[in-house]
Amino acid sequence: QVQFVESGGDLVQPGGSLRLACAASGRIFSIYTMAWYRQAPGKERELVARISTGGITYYASSVRGRFTISRDNAKNTVFLQMNSLKPEDTAVYYCNKYPPTPPWGQGTQVTVSS
Length: 114
Known about the structure:
Elements: E1 4-7, E2 11-12, E3 18-24, E4 34-39, E5 46-51, E6 57-59, E7 67-72, E8 77-82, E9 91-97, E10 108-112
């Protein structure tokens, strides 16, 4: 099974930027569509963005134009560049395959607040 370790979350002011990284275990990382998800307090986990093995991307409407997902198959890593952050982006961010399979990683906390 593939396991995930997310990093890069922080407290940032509105309008700021962050770059999240997710290191995945497993030698077959490159065959999976990978995705970032987030879960805000009191809400269900939601899909933020995904990237196919060929680099085709999809973004939730709430982040399109502000977030960019990318991957480095040689390093088994997927990234999420987040710009123009808003308070409503506050959440724990997770990476996983798309569609997701257990286990989930511990996630990384992103807090957007002044």
